[in-house]
Amino acid sequence: MSLQAMLLMLQILMNADCLRTFVFVATTQVPIKLDAVSTSDPQELFNLLAPPSYVLCVWLQLSMCFTFGVVLGPKSTVGGFIARYSAPATREPLYLSLALVVASIAAIVWEALMLLERRFLAPIALFFVWCGSLPFYLVLNRRYRAPNTLLDVIIFTLGELSVRLYFTWLTGAVIFGVLDAVQYLHGDFFGYVVYIQLMGVLLALAFGAYIQSRDPVVALMATWFLVGLAYRKCSFDGDAKDTFEKLQTAALVVKPVFLLVLIIDALRSLRHFLENVVRTGSRSEDQQVVIAAYGTV
Prior knowledge:
By secondary structure, the chain is mostly helical. The protein has 10 helices and no strands.
């Protein structure tokens, strides 16, 4: 087996394991042991929508998929990820490489701050990770340097999936990190009205981002957070317990909407992908040009 084939199989396995982790963490009764905290300790207060332990549980897989897809992924006939999405005869490859370095260093700092429980500094470091990943997400909509073989389609589809998953997750993680810091300053859990307003704003943001980008990963990530909230098992006292139960009920009501959007978008993307494969098969080998169908609806 060639090195390229081995790297491709590794990339497929990493993406599959990442999605498997998403499903397992969101559907298990107790995703992370730290979720069942003692609310008597103010140092352990987290926002009820998505605690840090739940956000952190998929960081390693997402980070590895992102790095592998951008840097270590197999080189196709149109070059690596940065070469494909950079404008020719510009300094964009250098800028993207620098952005990757910034994101990698900031991710290490963020992980260290989370382990040290530095509630105020961790969101700042995570914001720099988000900024470093933003250029990779923005260049995905460019149409030039299209893959010209089916293998290239698979490689770049996996690469785009990794970038979209990581950046979308980062967006949610930054928001919840800021909420954790604000609630820590508040000294107690927010009330139900505040949480339901925050949930409404976040859901509106998710719907707006999906409509604007038509990115199925946005619906996937929103579904993941909602499923995790709906099925998380935690022990709280007093008003926090009542608030958490109401938030779970709201998540159960809204969850099917994003699930339906996700299923419809997946079917449409699959249809476009199959149409492109059939269209490619009807051409001669020297004229095969396949456009990746991921995210194009």
